[in-house]
Amino acid sequence: MIQFNGKFGCPTCKHEGKQVSIGRGSTRAYGYQPVTLRSHSQHTKYAMEAEATSQVVYGVKGKSILHNLPEFDIINNNPVDYMHCVLLGVVRTLISLWFDSKNHKEPWYIGRRISEAESRLLGVKPPDVVTRVPKSFRGRGWKATECRTFLLYYLPLLHGILPDKYLVHALLLSKAMRLLLADEISQADIEIADNLLGLYWRLTEDYYGLKHCKVNVHLLGHLSHYVKLFGPLWTHSAFAFEDAIGGLVKKSHGTHDIANQIVTSFILQWRLHVQRKLTQGPLILKSFVDQLDTKSRSTQRCTQLSQSLAGVGVAKTISLDMEDESILKPLLEKNSVVINAYGTVKLWPKMILQDKVTIYSQASKRVTKRNSYTVTFVDPERPTCVRYGRVQKFVCCPPDTPDSVNAAIVQELKVHRCMELEALCFPSDIRCLSELVCCDFVSVVGELSKLAIPVEHIMAKCFDISTVNMCVITQMVCHSEVLK
Fold it and tell me: Is the pLDDT of residue 232 over 80?
């Protein structure tokens, strides 16, 4: 096929595109319109016709070597990669449009307030599963993971800086990605996401002009099609492949004979893996082999507290103050547990839940640039009611006994169910979507009382977007990809 910037350059459909002027040159733009999907048999027919006539037919120049693969659908088996299309394509373009000074005359330009936007962004403390802390908008090297975090979590930071309709427009894309990156997706979710992406595509032309409806914006309209075929976007993204390439790079340590270095390193790792299973020697030897064979060596000390819970780090034995003792008392009485005469408990800095998610407490002072202590937890009396809070301490009371209660002392938060975006001027035809695109974010409006809950009642770790001007909480998405 011809390239993406040529006539009929989309590999999934037969949208012709239109050559439009941009700066001193031109680009191929794809205005919003209904499209006709390509098929394997049709593509093969066009390829044979192109070879016979030496003319390009609907963007097809001839047969590909992939046509020789049996049972391979050359159209449907080449899905759109959201890492390059959405993150490195659309998201990077949006950031450039908003902050690049060449757009200083445009209504969406906010480069004059870049310091304010950066102050908000750099003040955020992401959870530990987000590998990169926020960095400046001025840098020109945002990685795909940074673009993903920005799209899914950081957009509310631009509220009051980016004009309302442009923020709403970006939130349409954010909501669609949240739906298509979920671990489990219903047919209804796919349809909603498809409508949101179609709307995003149409409004891109209205808000930014046809010249900014490039191929990546057009490809958004095909994401739902591939999710129906292959599942969530993370199942067929390039993240796993790029991670594997990074693993290959780490297997070479010089500039000479790189291929041999990679093969030798791979063989050594394979032999270690085999030896790990065969080793019958002392426990310390097995532990050493395990460390060599493990991708990321963990130095965390874990103590199994129950079937679904483990304490991490070194526990300290402390005496409770009167406030904590009164907070713990209702939970302990409910479990028929009495605090010993000295009021001592074991204090854990963090704990690992059943799904291998590590929750920190605010009492853990070693981590200063992360917030992994904001959580959702369940109310036993109202199982359908999700509550929000910040874990202050993990305690085991009484310590070192079979009937110990593992509790979290939580500062409960008072929240609004929807982020405060009433001022946003949704276009009249999508005003009904205002709650949909904002419902993933809740605004913190104050603190309620502290309470003690069983650690097992913690549901999930949250993304706490707290700045001087705002405090918004949202639940994490894309666990299966982020936690790999």
Answer: yes
